[in-house]
């Protein structure tokens, strides 16, 4: 249970990452991924990377520069521009549904204009899921200058698109529906220089 704790990625650039473990029974037609990050990086970095053997950017949350997030599904991406960080935690949720190809992006509890992405795609099952590095090969192929440095918390993955009230609940750390990956019962393995510490501030 990582409640009120964080992963601290201490070095910059870093070869560290966290492997997330869950058993996916079937391919994903819908999903929502949420997490909270705290960093002063201005270079590109990866937050959440879900790779299959067929597609290294099957799901990817990537921040190429301050004030911009890229959300990848099946190797294609859409960009969401957000207010420039003020040295605070940033909470993001990204959800996607295959039937409509609608990509939804929530930043600090507020929805951004929806975009179209990979309609009809199916997200593969045999996946390597990592925090803090961007995979250019299944489970590896890292570029140190896309690595994350800072603090990560409140990581979740659901196999559904969350409703607006649940998106807000995720931002406020309220009760959430059962998830494939849940911060309060996370099965993970830290690789390299990653430390679990209490959260210092809200």
UniProtKB/TrEMBL annotation:
SUPFAM superfamilies: Concanavalin A-like lectins/glucanases. GO terms for cellular component: extracellular space. InterPro entries: ConA-like_dom_sf, Pentaxin_CS, Pentraxin_domain, PTX_dom. It is found in: Secreted. It comes from the Eukaryota. Keywords: Acute phase, Calcium, Disulfide bond, Metal-binding, Secreted, Signal. Residues 3-202 form the Pentraxin (PTX) domain. PANTHER family: C-REACTIVE PROTEIN, C-REACTIVE PROTEIN-RELATED. This is Pentraxin family member. It comes from Trogon melanurus. The lineage of its organism: Eukaryota, Metazoa, Chordata, Craniata, Vertebrata.
